[in-house]
Amino acid sequence: MKLDKFDREILRVLQQDATVSMADLSQRVGLSHTPCWRRVKRMEADGIIIGKVTLLNSKKLNLGVSVFIYVTLKNHDGDSLTDFENAVQGIDEIVECHTTSGEKDYLLKVIVESIEEYEYLLKNKLTHLPLVDHLSSTFALKQVKNTTELPIKRQ
Length: 155
What we know:
CATH architecture of the largest domain: 2-Layer Sandwich
Protein name: AsnC family transcriptional regulator
InterPro entries: AsnC-type_HTH_dom (IPR000485), Dimeric_a/b-barrel (IPR011008), Tscrpt_reg_AsnC-like (IPR019888), Tscrpt_reg_AsnC/Lrp_C (IPR019887), Tscrpt_reg_HTH_AsnC-type_CS (IPR019885), WH-like_DNA-bd_sf (IPR036388), WH_DNA-bd_sf (IPR036390)
Radius of gyration: 20 Å
Domain HTH asnC-type: 3-64
Strand content: 15-25%
Number of strands: 4
Structural class: alpha+beta
Number of helices: 5
Largest sheet: 4 strands, antiparallel
Organism: Alteromonas australica
Shape: elongated
GO molecular function: sequence-specific DNA binding
Order of helices and strands: HHHEHEEHE
Distance between the termini: 15 Å
CATH topology of the largest domain: Alpha-Beta Plaits
Helix content: 25-40%
């Protein structure tokens, strides 16, 4: 789907505040209410807008430890990859899972309350994921940038 300048501006505004009213959104992007509403509905139907969320402050929820884990699997056949990917879905502390190129197969992002909680998770869940050969953990010391906004270019 080709996006014009109005579509891109709608997406920029919604990324910053998904609770914005349609009246405010249409005013901010320079469209009347109905055409703006139609564009939003079209982008939802086309799968460009896939949901609206509430962002939480992890530190205020006592979830201040972020760990990045490189995973290497023993096997790389389709069933092995599928089994691993299905298994990570059931671990709430894993908030992101990416397949990667190069020597490592996956990159996980885990968020927990403490290093002790991560150690428990590592020993009791992560090392028991299907076909795991090697895990390499790196703890984030400080978050320098955090954005959920995609870099939508202006035309």
